[in-house]
Amino acid sequence: MKLSLLFCLLVPAISAIVIQQPTRTVDSNIMLNKRQGSPTALPTAHYIKRDLEDTLSLYENWADDCSNNNDNNNAKVAVSDLNNLWQTVTNTVYCGNGKLKTVTKTVTATKSSSTSKGSSDTYGYGITVAQGIAGITCMLFGIFFLIFGYCSFRGTLAATGFVFFAVMTWIGLVNNEPLHGYPHNEIVYLCVSTGLGLVGSFLFIFIYGVSLYFVGGLAGFFFAVFILSWKENLVIQIQVARICFIVGMGVVLAIMIILLESYTIIFCTSFIGGFLFIIGLDLFIHTGLINAFLTIFDGNKNHTNVYIIKTPTYISLAFIIVLTLASFGWQYYWNIISKKKEFGINIEEKKEEKK
């Protein structure tokens, strides 16, 4: 009797110790909600060209928005994405001279969309007066270097001084431009760059002993930009390495003038002329080549510069080579073979005095 009573008391205790109740399974919906609380990080791998085109597509209609006086600012922008999603983007567009305009865009993602305008955020709406003046100026200087670069000593030094000082001034202005631009933005760029360019031209005429080597330096400067422009996002993507490469090319061609003056001067003037002519032409035909120059030298955090290479861009780069070779052949034949002329001041007069 006692044993049976003891057994009855021990059975519940043993079952309480050995037999454990199963834990409750967490509802899958609760786990899903917890996972949705913190969004999954975006993948780090991107296709550079697609990202660049997406960036351009957000800006390609800004010039139209600035020129549109209506209140209908809803514009559809197609961006290349794999997901069929849409979102509303509100941008504050700076239209120049302190004018701002708020634009609401419906961004629609499609699988087959692509940017057709390329770089309209760079060139703006049509061809502005400033672009026309800058383009014509670059083309005229390019023609001078292509034809008369070797035979006109003082003229070449003056043109080199103007281009060098104007470009350096533009780089300084664009990197220090405030968020909403300078007052009368285009006038500031044109007048200040032209004014300091004229100072440089007069200065280089009189210090020709030093300015002679700037012909090689300027050619190396443009030649480095030309090489970097053959790849989207540039051939050298590290900024410090790009600066070292550009400076190094300028120094190398400046030293080459000491070693092989005649041949180096012909090559330098030919390449400067070809590069300036195509850059000036690009301001009218909008191939996108100017974006490489902007990407390299415009480090302003308020500016968005995107360089995408398309077939017209390759054609522009190829024509720089064609113009350089044609000018080199012409200048070598006319000055070295036909005229037997050296590059310098009063060379012919000194030869006649010796005779």
From TrEMBL:
Transmembrane segments: 123-148, 155-175, 187-207, 212-230, 236-259, 271-294, 314-333
Domain of life: Eukaryota
Domain TM7S3/TM198-like: 135-332
Keywords: Membrane, Signal, Transmembrane, Transmembrane helix
Subcellular localization(s) per the UniProt record: Membrane
Keyword Signal: yes
Membrane-related topology note: Multi-pass membrane protein
Signal sequence coordinates: 1-16
InterPro entries the UniProt entry points to: TM7S3/TM198-like_dom, TMEM198
Chief location bin: membrane
PANTHER family: DUF4203 DOMAIN-CONTAINING PROTEIN (PTHR31247:SF5), TRANSMEMBRANE PROTEIN 198 FAMILY MEMBER (PTHR31247)
Record family assignment: Belongs to the TMEM198 family.
Name of the featured protein: Transmembrane protein 198
Organism: Mucor flavus
